[in-house]
Design brief:
single chain, alpha/beta, Conserved hypothetical protein from pyrococcus furiosus pfu- 392566-001, ParB domain, 8 strands, globular, 137 residues, 4 helices
């Protein structure tokens, strides 16, 4: 998949960032592109969001320091509407924290239904096998 300009920005900044859902890893730049091309960016109530796991502890000094630098109104966040009813952040934990810290009630974002996660964004199939779209069978 050739990434369009916005996803190229994400690829350069977030290269290697993976969102994990049910043991399957998804490439964040590809998810961002898919969301942008497939769904409208809408105002999502912050109270409805669940942060995904992060290398940084949410609320830690390092997390807050990074969050204060992000421009949370420039790029919409990417969320996944889980089958259990939760709305989990796939990309945008820092932007969401900054919006909440600023007293905002909503943030622009895309919502991808769990059952519609794009197969071509898979980077790890859950068995520890990286996916390679260039392999011949």
């Amino acid at each position: 998949m050739k990434l369009p300009p916005l996803a190229q920005v994400f690829e350069s900044v977030f290269h290697g960032q993976v969102y994990t859902l049910n043991g399957v890893g998804y490439d964040v730049p590809k998810l961002t592109y898919y969301a942008e091309e497939t769904y409208p960016a809408i105002d999502i109530p912050l109270k409805d969001l669940t942060m995904s796991k992060s290398d940084e502890k949410h609320g830690s000094k390092e997390f807050k320091k990074h969050a204060k630098k992000v421009k949370h109104k420039v790029y919409p966040i990417v969320t996944v509407s889980r089958n259990d009813g939760t709305l989990q952040i796939a990309d945008g934990n820092h932007r969401t924290w900054k919006a909440a810290d600023a007293g905002e009630l909503t943030i622009k974002g895309y919502i991808i239904p769990e059952d519609e996660m794009p197969a071509d964004a898979i980077v790890d199939d859950g068995d520890g096998h990286e996916q390679d779209g260039d392999e011949e069978e």
